[in-house]
Structure formats: structure tokens, C-alpha cells
């Protein structure tokens, strides 16, 4: 499958703000805003305005971003990220890639002691059909190579092959499905790959 390009304009990288000692050694203030200002804005935004600078779409691409940065494949038109920047990105991902900073008592692996637990809300019914699987799995990860996967009947006929490729991690070639994407499509296949949404609860 095709590879998402995380390139940048090298002339803009000279203005990337340096790391501070706090960001090198502290976890409580490490959040998306910090990583975005040090990495995504100066290194990615010029080519990836559709997701860079936005938490949710960036978070969906973290596995791919981390893999490409680690292998020095990205940034594509500039030198590899420095060891400090790689460590900053990896640490942020390892502590859960928080959107907002933690409290002073926060340590990686421990819950935030000052943050009250979110009240549990009644579970909303989940409806799963081809359109949901297409928009969340097939379209972002498969269609750029498998254009016929826009057609439900064709995808339905390919279900055994798709299931095998996903379970063995043979596909997609250029990225890993997120756990949520993998669970979603395998659940859909397990339920008979319905075209119309059905209530899973």
C-alpha cells in the first residue's frame, strides 16, 4: 500500500524552538501542545495541514509517525530528528500521548491522583455496518491501493482473504492498524459482514 508522507520544508526547521530542561526531564507538563510546538508544527505542518496541529487526527497516526521517525524515513526532505526530539516524541507516546498536561504528582504508569474519576455513563448502542467499517478502516488504510474496496459486494466476497491478512498482520503493508481499527473490522466480519448497521449490544 502507499505510504503517507510526513515531509517538511527544511528552510523552516531552523526556527524550531529548542527543548527546555523541563521537557527533557519532566512528565507532568508533557502534553500535545509541547510535542506539537517542538515537532509537528516545525517539521510536519507545511505539508500536512490536514492533521498537523490537531490532536485527534495526529493521535490516529501515532503508530505510523513513530515508526517512520524511528527509521529516519521522516522528515523526508530534511535531516532526521535529533535524539532529544525523538526521545520527546517517544516519551509522550509511552505515557499515553496526553492531550493536556498532568498534575504535579503525576508519574508515568500511575493514575492522576488529583483527577476525579469520570462518572460512568450508560453505554450507547453501537451499530456496525459496511459504511462504518469503510470510513474508519478501509478508506484510510486500504483504498489507496485497493480501489475496489469501495464496493460492498466486492469486499464481502474478499472477507476470508481480508480476515487472514489482518490476523497475520500481512496488511496493510505500510502501516499497522490501530487496535480499535483491527477490533472493528474483525468484529464486523465475525458478525457476518453486514451491509446495513446492526445493533451490537
Instruction: Label the structural class.
Output: mainly alpha
Our measurement of the CA-to-CA distance between the termini, rounded to an integer number of angstroms, reads 34 Å
Number of domains: 2
Which residues form runs of ≥5 with pLDDT under 50? 1-14, 19-25
Give the proportion of residues in helices.
40-55%
| Secondary structure tally, helices | 9
Quaternary state reads: single chain
Strand content: under 5%
Textual characterization of the structure:
- The protein has 201 residues and is mainly α.
- It has two domains: 10-94, no CATH class; 127-199, no CATH class.
- The protein contains nine helices and two strands, in the order αααααβααααβ.
- A two-stranded antiparallel ribbon has the order 1-2.
- Helix 2 (32-43) crosses helix 5 (83-94), helix 4 packs antiparallel against helix 5 (83-94) and helix 6 (130-141) crosses helix 9.
- The radius of gyration is 20 Å and the shape is elongated.
Topology, please?
Elements: H1 21-25, H2 32-43, H3 55-60, H4 62-70, H5 83-94, E1 127-128, H6 130-141, H7 152-157, H8 159-167, H9 179-190, E2 198-199
Antiparallel strand pairs: 1-2
Helix pairs in contact: 2-5, 4-5, 6-9
In short:
This protein is mostly helical. The chain has 9 helices and 2 strands, in the order αααααβααααβ. The protein starts with 20 loop residues before the first helix and ends with a strand.
